[in-house]
Amino acid sequence: MRRADTWLMLVVGALAVFVGIQVAGAPRVAPSVAPPSPAESASVAARPNVPKPSTNSGAAPSADAELTVTHDNTEAPARNLDEIHARIAAATDTYMADMLADMDQTLVRWPDLRERGLRIWVQSMTTVPDWDLRYAQMARDAFSEWTSAGIPTRFDFVLDSATSDVRIVWIDRFPPMDGLRVGSTRRAVDQNGWLARAEIVIAVHDSAGRAIPPAALAGIVRHEAGHALGLGHSANQHTLMYPIALEDEITPLDRATLRLLYDLPPGRVR
Length: 270
Ligand SMILES: [Zn+2]
Fold this sequence. Notes:
- It is a single chain.
- The chain is of the alpha/beta class and 270 residues long.
- The protein has a single domain, classed as Collagenase (Catalytic Domain).
- The chain has helices at 3-15, 38-46, 81-90, 96-102, 134-144, 214-228, 252-261; strands at residues 19-20, 65-70, 106-107, 113-122, 153-157, 166-171, 183-190, 195-203, 267-268.
- The two termini are 26 Å apart.
- Residues 28, 64-65, 223, 227, 233, 243 line the site of zinc ion (ZN).
């Protein structure tokens, strides 16, 4: 757990309004965090937009996707656990089982927002070195690509961060204690599993201080946007939601998993 998260949870706990929990999982990091298989090495070497292996030896960093539970006055969705299990078992074109293992067997997602739209704010001014104004539009585009999954949610890019549902902010780099991390997402969800807000943090530099190329940054935004929409990690390295940045594009498996998530009610499935 990062220090800022610890601090947040302490404050939240003291207010006795929220119950903080953390969902364990692997981090979204540069590809060198795990000893790559020969296939992975080939993949990394072939893609110049992937941050190259770092000499940073840091201990295994914490999860890049964290969940806080709030108590809200939403109604519990109608749920038929047998039907949910059957839908998941039948969905062999998804990594829902991996994702449930990553997220303590709990589905979280946004309510259907066809009319109002999910309000997304992207930081478009910062003094972070090497940051480029074009990155703001790149982030909007990368986020928008998830609409190709056919989920019942529209995205509205808003200018007021205070009233947004999802915020995307930029930092120079993550602190050394975060190891090779290049992106993170904090999500708040209510007691029924409905997402309430999300904050995505994207580093402009990797842990060794190298500027991350724009195409790789877009891949990081896509991955973190997947978390912001409710996805957990995939165990398939050929998917965007694999915790290590080997795949920068949204794959058919990623789309199918998000679509299934939005076909099911949120909440614990076991
Ligand atoms: Zn991740």
